[in-house]
Amino acid sequence: MALLDDHPSCPNVWHRYKSGEIVTIDIWRPEIRTKSSQLLNEGSDDDLLLQQLFSFGPFGFERVVVGIFREVKEVTHHIENTRKIGDVGFDFFGRFVS
User: Fold this and answer.
1) CB 81 within 8 A of CB 66
2) Distance between CA 69 and CA 78 in Å, rounded?
3) What percent helix, strand, coil does the chain show, rounded to 5?
4) pTM score, two decimals?
5) Phi and psi angles of residue 42, each rounded to the nearest 5 degrees, phi first
6) H-type alpha helices, the chain
């Protein structure tokens, strides 16, 4: 493990952590949003898109996700559909490639 600690690509935050420095990040928001403030406006473009995605069903939605990732050229990845087996899990497999 010590060899990895000295590797040139080891991030500074890791060195700080190893020396005992712990940085806490406050991510809790004091207010809780109401349900209505989180819902889309009925008939808005976002609402219509969400309705269309729901209409595809689970397997169709997964095919859309795979298609979107295939179009993203800025992130190197490999993604493919797997066969539909009805286990209520994801029917695609993907990984980011470095």
Assistant:
1) yes
2) 9
3) 40, 10, 50
4) 0.46
5) -60, 130
6) 2-5, 12-18, 35-38, 45-55, 57-71
Strand partners for 95: 78
What string of pLDDT tens digits covers the 98 residues of the chain? 566 677 777 888 888 888 888 877 777 777 888 888 888 999 999 999 999 999 998 888 888 888 888 888 777 778 787 777 777 667 777 777 76
Residue for token pair 């991510």: 27
Is the four-CA dihedral 68, 70, 73, 78 of positive or negative sign? positive
Q: What totals of helices (H) and strands (E) does the chain contain, helices first? A: 5, 2
Token reading at 8 = 């040139």
